[in-house]
Each structure stands twice: as C-alpha cells, then as structure tokens.
Amino acid sequence: MRLADVGTRDAQRFATSIEELDRVLGGGLVIGSVVLLGGEPGIGKSTLVLQALAATRTADRRALLVTGEESAAQVRTRADRLGRACGHVEVLAETRLEAVVGALESDPPAVCAIDSVQTLWSEDIDGTPGSVTQVRAAAAELVRLAKRTGTALVVVGQVTKEGSLAGPRLLEHLVDCVLTFEGDATGSYRVLRATKNRFGSTNETGILEMTEQGLRSVDDPSALFLGDLAGRVGACAFPAIEGSRVLVVEIQALVSPSHAESPRRQAVGVDRARLAQIVAVLARHGGIRLGDHDIFVSVAGGARALDPAADLAIALAIAGAHKRTPVDPPAAVFGELDLTGAVRAVGHFERRAHAVSGAGIDVAIGPESNGAPSVPAQWGAVVNIAGALETAFPR
Ligand SMILES: Nc1ncnc2c1ncn2[C@@H]1O[C@H](COP(=O)(O)OP(=O)(O)O)[C@@H](O)[C@H]1O
Ligand SMILES: [Mg+2]
After folding, report:
1. CATH for 201
2. Please, which residues have CB within 8 angstroms of residue 259's CB and are 6 or more apart in sequence?
3. pLDDT tens digits, residue range 177-201?
4. What is the domain extent for residue 302?
C-alpha cells in the first residue's frame, strides 16, 4: 500500500479534560493504543485512571475499569469521594486474563483501564501471578486486543520502592506510551512524565495536586517549585524548559568540609557528571577549590534541571553556599559552562527570560552572547565564570 493511501484514524484521540494528563499524552488517549502508567504504591495511579475514565465517558462512549487490586466496593468508595461522574464508569473485578479479554472483546468499551497488570494471570502461562512471564504475556495480549478493537487502553503498573519494576520496565517496548507518576506520596504534589510516547513529545511534564476530591491540574507550577529567594544562601532560580512551557525552578546547594577520603558529590534533579565538571571549572577558572568539601546540589520540589543551560545556576548556587553569601538581589541564572570557563549561549533565550519575569524575578544573569532580553529589568551579561562570580557576588 502506498503511504498516501493509508488511513490515519490512529491519530484520533479522546481528551481526558484533565489538562496536565492531556498535555503529557500529547492531547489525549489515542484510539487503539496502550498507555502504561507506572508509579509507586500510594502515588495516585488508581485515582488518576478513575478520573480519566469518568472524564472521557459520554452517553455513547463507554468507559470500563478492570480492577484486580481492589474490590468493586473499594473502587466505589473512591468514586464517591471523587464525584458524581465516576458513577457512570463500569467496573469489572477480575484477574483472569481470559475473562478480561473476553469481556473487552464481546463488547469493546471506548476506553478501558486495567489496575494493575501485575494482578492479571492465565492458567495457560507458566509462573505465578505477577511473575515476569505472566505480566509480559498479559501485556502482549492486551496490546493485540487494543489494536483489534480500537479500545484506548491504560494499563497500570506497580513500581516497588526498591525501584525494581516487576512490570513497567519489562513492558516498555510493548506499549505505545509509558507514563511515570512520581512525587512524594506524603506530600500533595505529583509529577507526571512520559518516558516513551509514540503519539506525542516526551518532554512534557504534568503537575498535579492530590486533594480530597482527587487529582487537580496545577495552573502555575513555577510558584510550587520556587521559594522566596531573598537573602537565602546557596539558592538560585533557573528557568528550565519542560516541553511547551518553562518552569522556573530553584537550584539549591550545600557545601561543607568533608571528613571522608573522597568527598561526597550528591545530585538530585541535576546531572551527576555535569556536577563534577562544574566543580572542576569552578576550581580552575573561578578560584573556588572544593576538593576537601562535600557538595550537595538539588532542585527543590522534585523538579529537574537536566539541560546544560543549568550549569551556571548550579555553579553560582555552589559558590554562594561556599561564600555563605546570598545572590543579592535574588537572580535567575542560566548559561552553559564549557571546560575553558566560558559561559555559552542557551536555547529558548527569550522564553526563559519571560518566564523569569513572570515569576516575579527582576534580575537575570546569563550569557552575553545571547544578547539582551526584553525582560526582566536588570540583565547581567557575563562571558565567563569569573565574570559571573563578580556579577553575583560583588565585593
Ligand atoms: N480521603 C482522602 N483525602 C485525600 N487524599 C486521599 C484520601 N484517600 C486517599 N488519598 C490519597 O490517595 C492516595 C492513594 O491513591 P491511589 O490512587 O490509591 O494510589 P495508587 O493506586 O498509586 O496506589 C493516597 O496516598 C492519598 O494521597
Ligand atoms: Mg492503586
């Protein structure tokens, strides 16, 4: 068949109207596709799928929840808490693969969620329920089924605290889209990311808040990740590109004398290898030698700053922590640091600058080679790490 003659019904989607979920999916659930939703217990997977089913269901579009982890009565309790729309979602409490496939085949729903794939098992397959062979066979069967019936399928996969995925990792190559749901289960904010997506970008991040009435999309995520920087030592704002939006995040550093033979270098939300390089550049080109200090760098609130544009913000956070001096007035910082100590231009310059200004920060420090941004009011153009240190910590 010529490609020009191939139909494109595959691109049809059901928007879930949960804004942050749709953003990460690339617009909604795609007909006949399979989404794997992974996350630790208690993070909110069952809540998210029930809300998504309730939101996609209409008078002529059925939504089915297959529950293996919880009884129908337990799901009902959650549905009552989440709101009236959930009452229209159909529920099937079943763990036998053949029975689930039979139900989905005889009367295919438009959307279906399986919670969780680990609970499905078949007598015809070796291994105990939840074992690698069982989970893989069940997932493969579900993928074939979705393609055949056109049902948009969401499959929940449990991830254990130890990070070993007796599920999701194993299934990544089978499904169309892999979503990971992260965050501190004891806090209320959750981050949703796509690590694979055949129908959208993998750069998008969804930010949700767990409330009494379920998960709610967060409108202004920068406010979540960015604290008040005034007078704080070892903290810098950084405008991180997250798909179609810019999140202004807070990079924090702590530096303390080390008693260990090899001092600690801890990175949370930033790249470890880049951290090592930044510390070396600070020593060689910035005159800040920390060979006998432990260094901890982290991005507040579980956000990430993995792109090289974060280098300069990481460097200034570390330098400020070491000098015990806040950047004053508080500044957003961006720029890539190369091995010669030069500060290189970054992509998305104007977008970053606008996000900084939108977050209420009046000062930005960044690469001279990017030119001057239209906002914020005060622009500190720098060409190298020594100049950046002068600008951020004038004597
Ligand atoms: N009454 C409630 N009010 C607010 N949040 C609740 C309530 N009950 C449960 N939760 C939240 O829901 C979470 C469990 O969500 P759930 O969807 O069952 O997670 P998972 O399926 O990933 O294990 C709990 O950790 C808690 O944060
Ligand atoms: Mg659950």
Report:
1. 3.40.50.300
2. none
3. 999 998 876 778 899 999 899 998 8
4. 223-392
